[in-house]
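Morning. Coffee machine broken again, so started the prediction first thing and wrote up yesterday's gels while waiting. Chain of 466 residues, entered below exactly as on the submission form.
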Amino acid sequence: MTSAINTIRPTPFQASVLSIPEDHFIFLGGGRGGGKSFGLQLLILRHCDQFKNRARVLVTRRRMKSLMQFAEELRGLMRSAYGAGFSYNQNDNVFRFTNGATVQLTHCESNSALQDTVQGMTFSLIVVDEAGEGPELPVIDALALALRAPGVPLRMVLAGNPGGANHSALAERYVTGRDPWVPFEFTSQKWVYAPSTVDDNPHLPEAYKRNFEVLRHTDPALYKAHRHGDWSAIVGDYFGGVWRQSQAVFDHHEVPPDMFSTLKLSIDWGSAAPCATVLGGRLAYDVRLSDDRVMPKGAWVIYDEHFECDPQNINRGTGRTPGQIAPMLHTMAARSHVRARGVIDSAAEARTAGKAESSIADLFRESGVRVTPAKKGARVPRFELLKQLMADGEFFVASRCRKWLSTVPSLPRDPRHPEDVDTNANDHLLDATSYLIAGASHGTVSTSEFHHKIILPDTGSRIINV
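Came back before lunch.
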């Protein structure tokens, strides 16, 4: 980019980003220090250069503090490029160029914040930085409705590192199965996955790169995610140190259903949110796998899953009824030669309109899925029990449970309650798993009354008391 003041030279990675056609949406999803934020700023300035008074740019981050840091970096770049050819209103967080282009910055934490800031606005380019941290993906999707500036190629650009509340949803959409720099279609839009690592940024000192070496020893998965931008390696803060995918994941073909003492369903009901169901149980025997790993008798196993979600958004439900979902649960149970029976979130037993109304659980039962309320207890102890099983090598997951493996291990902690999982993350399959295990951990309780001991007469023959 050449200006009247200075020549700005992008890195090779940033030059590749700038070379993507204007009508393609972009996901900048690499590791830390790869130059994503500066690449976003170059995209913004070029857009304003090209389309002048028709350029209307919106930049969002979840938190105001980090947004102000982005604004200061952008202002420094614009001062270097344009000198006095722009103005900045700090109260409104709006940059105005002498050619008529505008750049508006706003923090966006929720749908209500979205309505307050962009309702009725029109934009030609929308940039969402730190997309992994939030806002939730439905809020980001709603931002795209403001892309309607006439006569300009409309574009949305997302940037984020592996991790955060949106990790699994972003990976599912833009990373898993996508070839870097090769366009793909999602929701009728052409997207490009553009990853980067710290090696793509020659402006960073070697000391910064050496900082990653600490993670190599303390948290290898986080090292792979932040150093190399590996979205499949990330282990969330909550299960960090206890979840070991190489030890806990197995091929279900190696463990036939008759190796279990019991297999049953566990359902975390959702309509607007996803409906998550796992089929799991405890092993009746020790099982030696082909790689010589041993799954001990009594270990808990998540053997199969059904995750009912919007095909375009893993964090959103389908709105389908229990009667519509039940056939899939019967099919899943039949694959393992068991009946569709198990437990469901106790909240699904609620009848909001009185006793005559059928509950969610009733609707499942009417469809042949025999469920009882889960004895789930408190939330945090359920999750701690699961972590203990992971640490002891007594918890396993079949490799076909793809949604479980893409969501549960990467769950972050709740910043306000570190002992709990962040409730804004996709924790539905975790809840279903915890209902299955916590209910069984309560054990079977039997009761009896006190009776005097019956003394049988010694008659030398057998006497039957009736």
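The longest helix spans residues 64-82. Going to sketch it on the whiteboard this afternoon.
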